[in-house]
Amino acid sequence: MTTTITHFINGAETAGEGDRTQPVYNPATGEATGELRLANRADIDAVVASAKAASEIWAETSLTKRTAVLFKFRELLAANVQELAKIVTSEHGKVVSDAAGEIGRGLEVVEYACGASQSLKGEYSDQVSGGIDVFSFRQPLGVVAGITPFNFPVMVPLWMAPVAIVTGNAFILKPSERDPSASLFMARLWKEAGLPDGVFNVLQGDKEAVDGLLTHPDVDGISFVGSTPIAKYVHETGTKHGKRVQALGGAKNHAVVMPDADMDLAADHINAAAFGSAGQRCMAISVAVAVGDAAEDLVAKLKERAEAVKVANGLEPDTDMGPVITPQSKARLQKIVGEAQDDGAALIVDGRELMVKDHENGFFVGPTIIDHVRREMSAYQEEIFGPVLAVVRVANMAEALEVINSNPYGNGTAIFTSSGAYARAFTRGVTVGMVGVNIPLPVPVAWHSFGGWKDSLFGDHHIYGPDGVRFYTRGKVVTQRWPEPKQASNASFAFPSN
What we know:
By secondary structure, the chain is α/β, with parallel strands linked by helices. It is built from 16 helices and 23 strands. The chain has helices at 41-58, 63-79, 81-92, 96-114, 116-119, 155-166, 181-192, 207-215, 228-240, 263-275, 294-306, 327-342, 378-381, 397-405, 420-429, 465-471, and strands spanning 3-5, 7-9, 12-14, 21-26, 31-37, 123-129, 132-140, 143-147, 170-174, 200-202, 221-225, 244-248, 253-257, 285-291, 346-349, 368-371, 388-394, 409-410, 412-416, 434-437, 453-454, 457-458, 473-481. Strands 15-16-17-14-13-19-20 form a 7-stranded mixed sheet, sandwiched between helices. Strands 10-9-8-11-12-22 form a 6-stranded mixed sheet, sandwiched between helices. Strand 19 (412-416), helix 15 and strand 20 (434-437) form a beta-alpha-beta unit. The protein is globular. It starts with a strand and ends in a 17-residue tail after the last strand.
């Protein structure tokens, strides 16, 4: 039996007007578990109209009442972590503990949004001229949309919606078609928390829905997380149609391992960062850059750990890694690994033909390590987005920096070392937006902002944190004076400053 997965518009689940549908699969079994309704133009117009009407009232709602809804939503979300995590696992494939972890990181942003009263405080300058004061404040954009990827069906929407909503906007979520059910679960929690109808909406769909939001005259802002080609398209199309856009793209994240590093610590963390969530993270480590004498010891330790990873259905206890999202993803990974081997790379661990008992139709690929990878190989050039770790060998840190800085992506990177001098030189010299020192996944906490450089970000604003508040609001400056009724106007054709 399959479940029909619908939209959530103006406070209610609705099948909408569109007659197209698309199956949703459980990647661990390969079975279709849901039938997703895809939006048409009428559905796009309906959700935007609902959001626009709601935004006009919500923007005038006191900040105290807005934050009260956020506090209640946070309470409900925290109480439902395990149920929501199982929904994520059933459509994404990641293990339940990992799904719970992404919800936890999303909760951090909700908690940050609960304190938005501090971020929204303006500035006041008294008596800047004779009887004149100046003050500034921020106002919401209006209707904003979030277009989110499959790999974090809860966390990435929570990077956007809480900040957008607490700052007074109405929010439309267009989740991935591959794992859409978590979005409806969150919509129900928002309603239960007391959010007025139309302030949080879910529009299910494909490219037609995306293009409809990008071009709709009543959508004021677009947040996007996904691949670089689509991020570039979203940014160009949205800005062309007068919208504020933040578009986070792909990544090729390198972890540099210096000879003085604690090799067990480096191997443990790179193993987890490369193969957690089957490598389907925009912050996953997909390249280990082994410097000098570090290479042999590091590769041996990585091999040992990769071979010990337990791969199974993510709902099973003590599982480390689940399947990849689609059979097409599996086939692409197999192709890239085969090309690297044909081009002379050394296949240290080969997970291409992994079979999981009683899940023979699942989309499983085991941890895979390729050594002696050269930069012209597809295994290095492409964002693999799977459990494949490439090892690139270099002579020194200067060469390691050159490798990373010449890469078109600039999302995340890390260095493993026991030297403060190496760490400082690396963090200052690398052209990447998020840097870890002995930390492989340097995802900032919620009161900082997340975002990369180069082809990993299009637009001026990073996501969540202070940049999130700035993105979802516009600054306004007021210059005022209140003269006595009988006071001369002192009007002048000049441009007075005092």
